[in-house]
Description:
- Chains A, B: Residues 15-180 form the Creatinase N-terminal domain.
- Chains A, B: It comes from Paenibacillus borealis.
- The structure is a homodimer of 404-residue chains.
- The first copy, chain A, is an alpha/beta fold.
- Chain A has helices at 14-23, 34-41, 75-81, 107-118, 125-135, 152-160, 171-177, 183-206, 213-226, 286-305, 312-325; strands at 28-31, 55-59, 67-71, 87-91, 97-98, 121-122, 143-145, 168-169, 230-238, 259-268, 271-280, 337-339, 363-367, 370-373, 376-378, 381-387, 390-393, 402-403.
- In chain A, strands 6-4-3-2-1-7-8 form a seven-stranded mixed sheet, sandwiched between helices.
- In chain A, helix 3 (75-81) packs across helix 4, helix 8 (183-206) packs antiparallel against helix 9 (213-226) and helix 10 packs antiparallel against helix 11.
- The radius of gyration of chain A is 24 Å and the shape is globular.
- The two termini of chain A are 45 Å apart.
- At the A-B interface, helix 3, strand 5, helix 4, helix 6 and helix 9 of A face helix 3, strand 5, helix 4, helix 6 and helix 9 of B.
- Strand 14 (370-373) of chain A pairs parallel with strand 5 (97-98) of chain B.
Amino acid sequence: MDKPISMPVSGVNRTRAAELMAASSLAALVATTPENINYILGSQLRASNWTMQIYAVLPQEPDARPCVIIPTNRLGVIAQMGITGADLYVYSDFFVEGSIEGKPSTPDIDLFYSLLQNTTTHAGPIEALEAALEQLGLKGQAVGVDEMRIAPDLLAKFAGGLPGGQAMPAYKLFRQIRQIKTPFEIERLRQSAVLNEAIEQQLIDLIAAGVHEKELAEHYRLAVMRAGGTPAMTAVGAGPRSALPLIENYFRVIEPGDQIRFDLCLQLDGYWGDTGRTVVLGEATPWMEHHFQAVRSGWEQALEMVRPGVKASDVFQAAVARVQKEGIPHYRRQHVGHAIGLELYDDITLSPGDHRVLEPGMVLCVEVPYYELGAGGFQIEDTIVVTADGYEFLTQMERKLFRK
Amino acid sequence: MDKPISMPVSGVNRTRAAELMAASSLAALVATTPENINYILGSQLRASNWTMQIYAVLPQEPDARPCVIIPTNRLGVIAQMGITGADLYVYSDFFVEGSIEGKPSTPDIDLFYSLLQNTTTHAGPIEALEAALEQLGLKGQAVGVDEMRIAPDLLAKFAGGLPGGQAMPAYKLFRQIRQIKTPFEIERLRQSAVLNEAIEQQLIDLIAAGVHEKELAEHYRLAVMRAGGTPAMTAVGAGPRSALPLIENYFRVIEPGDQIRFDLCLQLDGYWGDTGRTVVLGEATPWMEHHFQAVRSGWEQALEMVRPGVKASDVFQAAVARVQKEGIPHYRRQHVGHAIGLELYDDITLSPGDHRVLEPGMVLCVEVPYYELGAGGFQIEDTIVVTADGYEFLTQMERKLFRK
């Protein structure tokens, strides 16, 4: 049975985007990174090569339709993803023959065929982008461009046709817009966190003497894939290797008495999950108990601070001071948390140099890890959304030193 | 048991790189994309965010050691991957405590600890890059920069310190160096092709009435992951959906009489595999036989043309003319193959506008697909290496219309 296409919904906050564009006197923003394209369209369109250019245009006017600039060979992907909320501008040759009248078809083929019939091909990506802006009535107006994933020569070519010959770099502006999550995005981030924790619980269940770190990492990655997600950083470190912050290779077979640190990252529909816990196989030593409790106190302190109007840097200072006071006097960190969304590190970190204030709708991963080479590492990482009077957890697992 | 680290070997052709740098009067190249970094180091170092900057420096002098510029938090990854063939220049704060003397450790922790003790931290990525060039004795000399994955403001800052205030864009130069594969790279590409075909054969074995396209796609992705690879584009299209060139969503349950088209892509240690075949469940119709034979003749024609000195565009023209002559008079294509390597589309395509000549050591995917909406699609895609007097297959599967 051929399933109908479900149309993607996008997380974009058009009102906030319009306000921030107006404040910078920009008539539109051009997204070039998959994350910002996803923010506008509700679906990622990944290029298969660095030279392939894919853009999405977000007009300041909240009711104006976004536009997508893609190579012709991506029309079929647009049709399969059911992207119908944006106007399409295509470039480069791609040949597909045939007709579908009276022949076997599916909804995506119908849409693909109609797109092939009705879409004008432009000479190149910049010509297609300029046609989109002209159609939007924005030709000659100031435009910001997400500068991170556009070929520099094409950016220069495009900027040449703008007022003053310049396009304002807009990657940071996109991140600023994305700081405050829409209810749709909070729900997506909740799903990512819940999936991540469900699989993390499976890993805890699998821990036993003789199990290789690699088995746990592979279980995680395959489980994420089966759930329709994309696994990313998979820190699974046992024994002395629990002290390694990032883990990308797996060397150790778990032994009784090992502490195992998890810091697990995935993407689901583009939205990141990033959670972590620490487990001991057998009895925890007094050293483990002591250091875990210190870390956990710092994490609690960070959460106690979280509410609208509080500076990110103040959350940081309070959490670090608490860990130092509770038993790790030499404790140092570069941050005790970060915003999460379409990027693993969205804008705002709970760090000494970030003096911006928290606002309702920000989604943060709060983490106060400790890494001691020659001894072990500890992690508690949870995801929260800042609410009007505090915060709400998107994560559910117990916040304890797990025992197996 | 803790396994020792195996040191990565890189595919870089230092002699060819030196010649092409000399021809452009460049003292060094700076890689910024994961592909070009992998080319230099033999290992990918992926940034977790667009703002995170990772570079590798390849000096023109073939005996000079490459350098890596990374945030401090990537030192542990360098240690786990066993990257010891490059000098390290780090930036930004990252805190790990402890000592390992007389304590439980592993080879990667030993290396990580020694790196933490012996690596100077620089203020930022450009300061680290400048320190690397100064240490190489290349300060003030002309340098090319892979312009595709460096933050534009940082590129401008770096270029300001170069002769004439400019860095030559070097993404294309890296691709030109990578056109001719080293024996190490050919072996890696053979492994990717062999793995891809082994899993493709499993998909053919799984084909039966009632099997969903999605099951085949998921089997492919999980099998690639289990083999240590990364699955990418997974075109599995049955019945009318076999005519869709790129497939990213799966809608159809296979029925008797369906033709199923595979075009499957993976990465293994950074090197791409991209192969394809077509299968019929039950008896092929005369229309299927006719069109498959036309496509297969074009593919044979392309291969007959492949040898050093032949223009890529001449291979294209001959293949398309042959398909037209053998039974699809309206046949059109934008290319009949592409170079493959650390990018899915490396430099050189068998296309009407690419008049460069083939050279020994080029690795090409040769494909002459046909897509007819309302009818079906056909694919044969193989990987070859150009040799002194022709070519050698890296792929092994039969080149037939498979029957199930």
